[in-house]
Amino acid sequence: MPQAPDTIATRVTGRRTVAAGVVELELKSADGKPLPAFEPGAHIDVNLAGGLMRQYSLANFQPAPDSYTIAVGLADASRGGSRYVHDSIAVGDVLRIGLPRNSFPLDPKAPCYTFISGGIGITPILSMVRWCEMARKPWRLLYAARSRTQAAYAEELASLGGERVRLHFDDEAGHVADLASFLARLRRDEQVYCCGPEPLMQVVAAQTATHPVDCVHFERFSVSAAPAGGDNRPFRVRLKSSGRELEIGADSSILDALEQAGIDHPFACREGLCRSCETEVCSGLPDHRDYVLSDTEKASNRMMMVCVSRARDGYLELNL
């Protein structure tokens, strides 16, 4: 996999276990220079051994950061990334990372915030909570996990937020979290941010169906099903720079076709989750199947994720 042109060499300066199956890493610039600032909700691409690239949310927040903090949960069916972090990365190691990017931005002008997190989904939410505390903004949080031992940062959040934090542990309660009661009295201008397993986010989406659509935000780390879309029909893609045309088969993606043609293009997740493969559309109508573009961005048809999205009408020209 080609490295993105804008990367930073960082050194692992801290490592600790923050919950069962969750390791926290502190990263500082390897050359001692300041790290780029970032907004709450941002993530970084982390280059791992064997050409792997994974995205991890930044859990800390500082206006002028001297370090980045990520927390990595060991996935039940790890594709190599989380297992490598847990088993192989140690203090002193150098990791090359991408510049912070944000597909889950916090609206700094909102009057108040409601956060809902499940499991390792607490990492971007924690950054948002820390920003709210610095900005003295009203906030509240429901944090759900299977058990107390698996809830990273639960004690810190409870200490920080007091009554504003509702912790729910399935094994202690004997049932899943009551999201309906937590969301029952939302203000119309209240911003809702949710990150966690797909079933939790589906319930939150259902419970906030009548809330203004631009006030409800989701961040996905994985998907439980293929992105929604129409039938997978073959189509053609024209590359603007060379005029070359590629045939995209019904069982192939644009990214697959680019790779088969020997064309390097950035990617990471291959699931439409991270924006790494975002590409400008010059002509044609994309069939958007990603999870990161907003409704407004999709309606503009200016950009698309070539790892999952396709063509509506059989033809696309891309700025490649």
If you had to describe this structure to a student in words, what would you say it looks like?
The protein has helices spanning 81-88, 122-135, 154-161, 170-173, 179-182, 198-207, 254-260, 295-300, and strands at 7-19, 22-29, 43-47, 53-57, 68-73, 94-98, 113-118, 139-145, 165-169, 191-195, 216-219, 235-239, 245-248, 278-283, 286-287, 303-305, 310-311, 315-318. It is of the alpha/beta class and 320 residues long. It is built from eight helices and 18 strands. It has three domains: 7-98, Translation factors (Elongation Factor Tu (Ef-tu), domain 3); 113-219, Nucleotide-binding domain of ferredoxin-NADP reductase (FNR) module (Rossmann fold, 3-Layer(aba) Sandwich); 235-318, Roll (Ubiquitin-like (UB roll)), CATH 3.10.20. Helices cover 19% and strands 30% of the residues.
Task: Explain the layout of strands and helices.
Elements: E1 7-19, E2 22-29, E3 43-47, E4 53-57, E5 68-73, H1 81-88, E6 94-98, E7 113-118, H2 122-135, E8 139-145, H3 154-161, E9 165-169, H4 170-173, H5 179-182, E10 191-195, H6 198-207, E11 216-219, E12 235-239, E13 245-248, H7 254-260, E14 278-283, E15 286-287, H8 295-300, E16 303-305, E17 310-311, E18 315-318
